[in-house]
Specification:
The chain is of the alpha+beta class and 145 residues long. The chain folds into 2 domains: 92 residues, GMP Synthetase, Chain A, domain 3, CATH 3.30.300.20; 31 residues.
């Protein structure tokens, strides 16, 4: 199929560099909480990079973290240009990645469905044993004729 497009290779390199920078070198006090770089999308001309990050924390912490990320974007752009030896360093745009929150919500809903289903099955089982009815083969009646 051929080798991957250059924007894909550059995006992966940027994802690694940004993750390393945030883990080790981010000095902005607004960047707090658990920040994960989930993906990077590059334009074909390599001039813009959308960096998708997932931030764990309350709404105020998330808002402050994105303000901090936007303030370090120009420094990060300069660092990426030098580190990756790009002719034109891409403009960095941080975007919220909600996929982890969505996956967590789906897991929570599935667990609730399982719990509800088990409760209904247990209630039906209790009702059957309380009535003394033991279901027979299909099509037969348990009452005396």
């Amino acid at each position: 199929m051929g080798e991957p497009r250059r924007p894909d290779r550059v995006a992966e390199s940027i994802r690694e560099q940004v993750a390393t920078f945030l883990a080790e070198g981010a000095k902005d006090p607004r960047i707090r909480g658990f920040v994960t770089v989930t993906a990077v999308e590059m334009t074909r001309d390599l001039r813009h990079a959308n960096v998708f990050v997932s931030v764990m924390g309350d709404e105020a912490a998330i808002k402050a973290t994105f303000q901090g990320l936007n303030s370090v974007a120009s420094h990060l752009r300069s660092m990426l240009g030098k580190t990756l030896r790009l002719r034109n360093a891409p403009e960095i745009h941080f975007k919220a990645d909600e996929s982890i929150a969505h996956a967590s919500r789906i897991e929570q809903l599935l667990a609730q469905i399982r719990t509800d289903r088990d409760a209904v099955a247990e209630a039906a089982s209790d009702a059957d044993s309380a009535a003394g009815d033991v279901p027979g083969p299909p099509g037969t009646s348990s009452s005396a004729e």
